Amino acid sequence: MSGNQSETAGKPGTTPGPPRRYRFGVFEADTRTGELRRKGVRIKLNAQPFQVLVMLLERPGELLTREEISRELWPDGTFVDYEHGVNSAVNRIREALSDSAANPRFLETLARRGYRFLAPVERMAAGEPSISAGQPESASSNETASSAELDPAQPASGTAGKSRTRILATPEDLPRTPHAVVQTLFLLLQLMYLGFYLGALTNLAEVEDLLSPLRRATLVVMILIVTAAILIPVRAFAFCAILFRAPSIREKFLRLWPFLLPLDVLWSLSPYLLLHHINFGLALACMALLVYSPFAQRSLVLMGAGQPRAVSVPVR
């Protein structure tokens, strides 16, 4: 690497070279403060991952090899498992940018070679104002649309999109949790739903008896049967796709989620189908928990359920 690139990629705030600021999409990186921001809101990113990010921003569209990264992060003679270290730094960058290794918007992995930064990068002039929350990312509509495409957490434009941002969590709102934990919790939720569907269909006679006092009991039973028949394959798909980390499962599930939401809320009433076995208070408590379940599933997917793990590839 050239001396200029080495200075830029040094530890934030300690390099002898002039501090620089980079803008890509709705994100900004400031080498003077060592901070990454999204629309003016600081995103936590430790020193080494930020150092790697700056190296990528300095050379957008170019291959940055794992050897170059390791030489910059660890001086000669430093003993370190750099394979794990580089993988960890890249994973932290992806988490901060809400990016995906399977369907990258920013950081692409080139197998056995290194990494490449995909998005356009703008080097900001000294004194140029940063993007703040609520401020348009760009003066022109074309640039604004481009920024929205590069921000996976950006909702659709309009009032509905703004209200969703206030209600639904974004990746920046969620804690960093081990992949095994979020994966297991998501799979357990799918098994729970499958248990409700199969239990209701297995005990239809009991359910019909319980619903018989209702004016339109037959219609309620038919809705129960039809929705269970639809949702059983949907749950099986979600379970298998997350378990085997199907490509782009995060994006597919998030597109499917608005259609699942009303059905999941409807099935939050399913504890009342067990009133022959539990009391009303327990059914009410279970219903309250089930109302939250669809939102929990969405959060778990945003936290990394189903995303592929980084694989250490020996460098030759």
Molecular shape: elongated
Whole-number tally of structural domains: 2
The gyration radius over C-alpha positions equals 24 Å
Number of strands: 8
Strand content: 5-15%
In whole angstroms, how far apart are the ends?
Answer: 19 Å
Helix content: 40-55%
Count of helical segments?
A: 11
The profile of the biggest β sheet is: 5 strands, antiparallel
Order of helix and strand elements from N to C terminus: HEEEEHEHHEEEHHHHHHH
Question: In what order do the strands lie side by side in the largest sheet?
Answer: 4-3-2-1-8
The structural class is alpha+beta
Low-pLDDT segments, ≥5 res: 1-16, 136-165, 310-316
pLDDT averaged residue by residue = 79
